[in-house]
Amino acid sequence: MNWGSASEFFAMGGHALYVWGSFGACAALMVIEPLLARMRRNQALNELRREIRARNESQDET
Amino acid sequence: MNNRIINWFKFSSPQTFYPLAGKMIPWFWVLTAVFGLAGLYIGFFVAPTDAQQGEGYRIIFIHVPASWMSMFIYLVMAFWAALGLGFNTRLSGMMASALAPTGALMAFLSLWTGALWGKPMWGTWWVWDARLTSELILFFLYLGFIALQSAIDDARRADKAGAVLALVGVINIPIIYFSVKWWNTLHQGASVSLTKSPSMAQTMLWGMLLMALAFWMYSIAVSLTRVRAIILERERHAGWVEELPELKS
Fold this sequence. Notes:
By secondary structure, chain A is mainly α.
């Protein structure tokens, strides 16, 4: 075990800014990117639903 | 025809690949979590403090995996681009487009963590040395690929133009990899190489390899998610898309 206490862990031997700046940015981007990819798929699905509904409605009228 | 031969072209059709990718994605997330948690545990709690760099060296556990993936994803992207140019398969171009943003993210993380590592160890965020500059060029190649593709309306023509750019840019990958050997750089040499035993503690190496596996699985999971979106966008007028169960509700 490297750390005597939680505060020692967060201090990272005086390199807290650099270590947590790296891991923090990495974690944030790796949460955001999958959410964006999922949103893109949901958008495509919604557009397809709208198109299909519009087509079905125009068929009903004729 | 010999029916023992797997028909690989079957999997190259978006119609077959779309549901297959959907089934694989959760498994790659599970692998990402398993490798990531194991890697972080070893990286923070098992690997010892570095004699020279103190705790600051722990940035290595994301810096090296991100840098490896930034180069590897580029090679995979160029492979799909070449396949698309050669065989004119629809899925290849979609795969290349799906990989580019993830590759750009890895290149960015490599530069970002490198800057945060360079400041305490070298005393500077950035130097124009061969390793750093060629990695920056890689980041711009990804951005250029994305910008070029989004500037062309016709998807098939965008694939072709992107493929040419991706293939020309491949020359940069060996330049990045060998830059620390070919030129005198501030960046340290490879800690892990195929020809000699690694110049680091066993536990540090294991932490790094586990994190690299986690980054790899992450890249697969997120680019499969993105390729499914791209398939829906491009195949919207195909009959099979309208038969999808997720559109029936």
